[in-house]
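Hi,

Apologies if this is the wrong queue. I'm a grad student, and the batch job for D-alanyl-D-alanine carboxypeptidase from Peteryoungia algae produced an output file that my downstream script rejects. I'm not sure whether the problem is my script or the file. Here is the sequence I used:
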Amino acid sequence: MIRHLFRLPLLALASLFLAIMPAAAEIQKPGHAHILVDAETGAILEADNADRVLYPASLTKMMTLYLTFEALQSGRFDWDQRLVISQNANDKEPYKFAVGAGNTISVREAVMGMVVLSTNDAATAVAETLAGSEEAFGQMMTSKARELGMAQTVFTNPSGLPDPRQVTTATDMARLGLALLRDFPEEYKLFASRGMTFRSMKFRGHNAFLVQYPGAEGIKTGFTNASGYNIVTSASQGNRRLIGVVLGADSANARTQEMITLFDRHFGTKASQ
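Support response: The file is valid. Your script probably expects a header line. Output copied below for reference.
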């Protein structure tokens, strides 16, 4: 029977933490999961271990971006607003703008940095500006996750840097991808960016699927030793759009090839050939 992502029941918040936190502590090595969803209907086309609790790594920035887009929409942010890079933000490795503590970046630069380069200092600056601290922002993120039906996700920081408490599932990441597309269709187009220019320097992104697959629209990749290689991405062929998630692949190439196989199988053509 076909399931639909936005029709699955939510868990009670109290029982959620009791259920998830022990599971997080038990994760010893990268697990593997995938899911493919029809973006129009929410129908789950294929899934494997999709509700297994795993680590999101930099897929976390999808929620940081969701809350950034929400702040732009509500007027709490504007695109040219300056964000101060704190010492805490400047200390985030490995990917960062590295402008130095006390200096600033624009909200636009922060967004593009997270989308293209997965800049941790930008994610932290957004969090500290909107919530005062990473911890408080993590609570905002988890609360928003619950609103979006992400029943098994807990966020503790805006970047996805390792924290055993920060966990998710392929199902929940697909829900977040669908929510970004549904709630911010204009901003969603930024995920297709293959590169960016930052202060006269040109940079290329990390998402090989975006380059290799016709119709790919891109969202986010991620990696830590604990998570393995993760990706959430979308692609369109004709009038059909699919959103896919792969968690815990063995390499960047493996996650790309697995995603290509999933999309090819369900588009019904060898679109990547």
